């Protein structure tokens, strides 16, 4: 499975307590400290992603078009989600909220449009083009 599909499976399933749908299924909420432990801390065949580093995981989210929402973002409307967020917040945790228009609980068909962005490779300002010859 590619990154967005793995993420979808995690958020939809009940195997992990550190990641869930927030804001009516339009955002992903990640309880950072627990996520590092229960997801990124896995090794061997139980490993979910190719990294065990939170910064690398967040880079993957950004590469697939997810944007971080501000801390004062409107929280979940459903009671179970709200209570989970409050419990996590009261435990002095850091909850991260990420949004992607193609990652929506109500529209799983949009997941196929969630693709890795391809950035232009940077080159030094004085560097010649690849096709140029001295």
What does this structure look like?
Belongs to the HSF family. GO terms for molecular function: DNA-binding transcription factor activity; sequence-specific DNA binding. It is found in: Nucleus. Its main location: nucleus. Pfam families: HSF_DNA-bind. The chain has 134 residues and is α+β, with helices and mostly antiparallel strands. The protein has one domain (3-113): Arc Repressor Mutant, subunit A, CATH 1.10.10.10. It is built from four helices and four strands, in the order H-E-E-H-H-E-H-E. The chain has helices at residues 3-12, 32-40, 54-63, 79-90, and strands spanning 19-22, 27-31, 67-68, 95-99. It has a four-stranded antiparallel sheet. Strand 1 (19-22) and strand 2 (27-31) form a beta hairpin. The chain is globular, with a radius of gyration of 18 Å. The model is unreliable at 127-134 (pLDDT under 50).
């Amino acid at each position: 499975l590619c990154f967005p599909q793995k993420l979808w499976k995690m958020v939809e399933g009940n195997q992990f307590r550190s990641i869930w749908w927030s804001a009516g299924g339009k955002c992903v909420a990640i309880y950072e400290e627990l996520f590092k432990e229960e997801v990124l801390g896995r090794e061997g065949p139980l490993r979910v992603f190719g990294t065990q580093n939170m910064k690398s995981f967040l880079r993957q989210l950004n590469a697939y078009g997810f944007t971080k929402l501000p801390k004062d973002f409107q929280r979940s409307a459903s009671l179970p989600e709200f209570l989970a967020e409050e419990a996590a917040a009261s435990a002095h945790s850091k909850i991260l909220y990420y949004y992607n228009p193609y990652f929506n609980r109500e529209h799983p068909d949009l997941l196929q449009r969630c693709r890795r962005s391809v950035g232009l490779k940077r080159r030094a300002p004085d560097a010649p083009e690849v096709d140029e010859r001295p």
